[in-house]
Give the backbone structure.
Amino acid sequence: MERALAASRHGVLSTIRVEGSVHSVLINPYLFRSSVGIFSQAASVKVGNLSWTPLATLCLFSESSYLTVEGEVELSREPALIDEAALAFELKYGRPPRPTLGARLLILLHPIRVYGALGGT
């Protein structure tokens, strides 16, 4: 998972809407404390979905490789944790996370199942 996260600048996060359909969105994932860190606006659709059903699937891709991470999600508004996660984000992307319109929230995807095909990247 660490190798795929390092190689992927983007990933597709899928969450479950209240009525059961799937919502997918492009995100910038990074490794944070052995979980996948994702920043979001607190009022986003994905956060609303995760508040209802705290499960998500993330697909990472890079050239001929892909990795799927399924897991439980923790939502955090804790300022110290968000600041620490912002440093991990900046270390990977070389820039701070983009400003949000509303309150910033940290999504932590704790892996339960990881599978895929890692190529030579």
Helices lie at 2-7, 45-52, 79-93. The chain has three helices and seven strands.
